[in-house]
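Hi W.,

Here's what went into the run:
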Amino acid sequence: MLHIQNVEKSYRKSGLLAKRSEKVLHGVSFSCHDGECLGIIGESGSGKSTLGRLILGIEKPDHGAILLNGQPIAQRQVRRGQISAVFQDYTSSINPFFTVEQAIREPLDGDGRSRADHGRRVDELLEQVGLSPAYRTRYPHELSGGEAQRVCIARAVANRPRYIVLDEAISSLDVRVQVQVLHLLQELQSVYGMGYIFITHDIQAAAYMCDRMIIFRKGQIVETIDTDRLREVQSDYARTLLGATIII
Amino acid sequence: MNILEVDQLNIKDTHTGKVIVDNVSFELRQGRCLAIVGESGSGKSLTCRAIMRLNPSSLHQTGRILFRETDLNALSAREMRNMRGRPIGMIMQNGMSAFDPSCVVGVHFRETLGEHYGWSRSVIDAMMQEAMQSVMLNQPAQLMNRYPHELSGGMLQRMMIALTLVLKPDIIIADEPTTALDTLSQQEVMAQFIHLRRTLGSSMIFISHDLGAVRHIADDVLIMKSGQIIERGETGQLFTAPRHDYTRQLLSARLTLSDHFRQLINEE
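Here's what came out:
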C-alpha cells in the first residue's frame, strides 16, 4: 500500500530582483493499493510530474509524508527495489554508453545472485517485453522509440518492484506503438502484479489503462473517480476535460 | 485548380546515400486541406520542409515543386526567401522554439510583418491585437510584451495562428501543430485552425500522426510510410473504407483507445 499524506512542495523561482517561492503541490493526499493502476491526469504545469518525483523519492516533500507499507519512502532501504520509473523521454533515459544488456542489468547489481543468473534474467526480461535476445548488444541510438521504451520497461520491472511510476511513458510514441506498449504493461501487470501510477495528460489512454483516476489541477486533486464510473464525474473541470477530448 | 503540385520528389541523405523520401507526388487543390499522416520516420515532415526548402544541405532533393507556375526547387536562395511567410506560411510543432527566446513576442511580429508588408509599428500592433482577440487570446497588448518562456505552448501556438491570420498566406503548412499540447489546448488550437481556414480560405497542408485531429479538419488525406505514399483519398472515404493494411492498423489502434473511451462516457 502506498500512502501519500498531505504532501506540499514549493520551488524557489528566481525573478529579476526578488526570489519568490511558488507552491507546486497544495496538500495532496491519496493512496494506491497493491496491484492497482492509478491514473493521475493533469495538464502541463499542474504539478503531476513533481508528484511522480516525490513518490519515487528523487525529491523530498516540504510537508507531509509518503509511506510505502507504513515506512517513509524517503529512506533508501524502504524504496530499494520496491519502486521504479519509466519516463517520457526515452532517448535520455538510457545511458548512451550502455548496451541494452548493461542497462537492464544495472538495477540487478548487488542482489547477491551470480552473473549467469543475471544474464538469464536479462533474456527473460527481453522476451517479456517482446524483444529478441539479439538486442542485448545494441546501443540506445540504434533503437526506435518503441523499442527504447520497451527496454526502459524491462529495466523497470527487473527487480520485481511493487510500484512503477509511468510519467507520460507513452506520450511521445506513435498511436500504434502506444497501444502496443499499453498491452505490454497490462501483460506485465498480470505476471508481476505490481501497481502502476500512470501520470499522463491523455485521458483516453488513462481510461484504457487505469482502474481509478485522479484529475489533477494546479497542484490539487480536483476529483477522484473509478474509471468505469467516468461518466458520472461531478466537477466542471473534469467535465470540460472529457468534452475536449478529440475522439475519432 | 491545383495551387501546389509536387512531382516525383526525392530526398536523399548525401552522407549515407540513403533515400529518405522516395518519388512522392501529390497535388494540393485551391482552398482544400490536405492531411499528411504517418508515424515518426515516415518522411512526412521532411516532405513539407522540402516544399519550403528548409532541409539541411546534407539532404539532397530532386523533383519539381510547382507553386502556381513557379518551380520552387529551381529558385535561388534569395527568391525562395521571399516565398516563405507570405505566399507560403508555416506553423511549426513547437511554439517555444519557433519564437526568438531573447525578445518579447511583439518584436517577432513587428519584424515579420514589417519585412513582408512594410507596415508601421502602430499598424502592426493594431492588426495583431485584433487577430489575437479572434483566436481567443485576451489582453493582447500585454501578451505582446511577454517573452516566449512566460507563455504556455497552447498560447504560443495560437499566437502563430494569429500571425498567420494577418500574413494571409496562399498556402499554410502546419507541421504537427497540436502534438506537443495538452488535451484542452489541443482542442482550442484545433478550433482556431478551423476558424483560420474559414476566414482566409487558404489551402492547407496539415501534417499529423493523430487521425482524430485529421478527421476534424482535412478534406483529403495522404498516408505515408517509410518515405512513400501508400494510400490517398478523401477523408470520409479513407476513414470508412481504408484499402491498405497499414492504414487499417493505424485506424484500429486509434479506435482501440477511442471506442473504449466512448463506451465509458456515453450512457448505455
